[in-house]
Amino acid sequence: MPHSKFKKLIIMALPLILVGCSTVPVEQVNNRLSAWKGQHIDQVIKYWGLPSKQRQVGQKHYAEWINKSSEPGNTAISIGTGTRSRHSGIGIGFTLFDLGGTDDACSRLVTYGENGLVSEISWQGTNDFCFEITPDLGAIRKNKVVMEQKG
User: Fold this and answer.
1) Alpha-carbon gap, residue 50 to 44, rounded angstroms
2) If you count DSSP H runs as helices and E runs as strands, how many of each does the chain have, helices first?
3) Which residues are 66's β-sheet partners?
4) For the whole prediction, is pTM greater than 0.70?
5) From CA 49, how far away is CA 107, in angstroms rounded?
6) Least confident of 38-52, 90-104, 115-129
7) Sheet with 118-125, edge to edge strand ranges
């Protein structure tokens, strides 16, 4: 029965499809960003790039990074099978322009004092995008140690 084989294929592929749709948990984004607390603002700028906005209110300084990304939808190919009575068929579909693109945004606000040390970091936006654009301080430190050992 070709139809039952197709069902088995769908059931086996379902976990892979669900993994592709998952997002980075909020805690993971928070951890990546909070690792930068205590760093000097010059270090943050070195790895994050120049902030979009900067301001000072009293003794507190604020630097804000605002990032946006728009991606068009992807092309898609779909294959399906069906049966009716003694007849079975296979259908193939192709979508050239999927209008369901994504708009990602991330705003990261860093608060630091007169000494330049980061005391607070807040963010809002798309979890995956914020996680992706924020450099991993742990990985940077590991790479730095490796480079120092080689040199």
Assistant:
1) 9
2) 5, 6
3) 107
4) no
5) 14
6) 90-104
7) 53-57, 60-71, 102-112, 118-125
Cα 92 to Cα 80: distance, rounded to the nearest angstrom: 6
Question: Which H or E run includes 67?
Answer: strand 60-71
92-97: list long-range contacts, CB under 8 Å, 24+ apart.
97/72, 97/73
For the chain, domain boundaries = 2-71+102-150
Structure tokens at 59: 């003794």
- For residues 52 and 44, what is the distance between their CA atoms, to the nearest angstrom? 13
The kind and range of the H/E element at 107 are: strand 102-112
Phi, psi of 129 (to 5 degrees): -70, -45
- DSSP class of residue 52? S
- H/E stretch holding 28 reads helix 26-34
Q: What SS3 class is residue 38?
A: coil
- Quick one: pLDDT band at residue 53, thresholds 50, 70, 90? very high
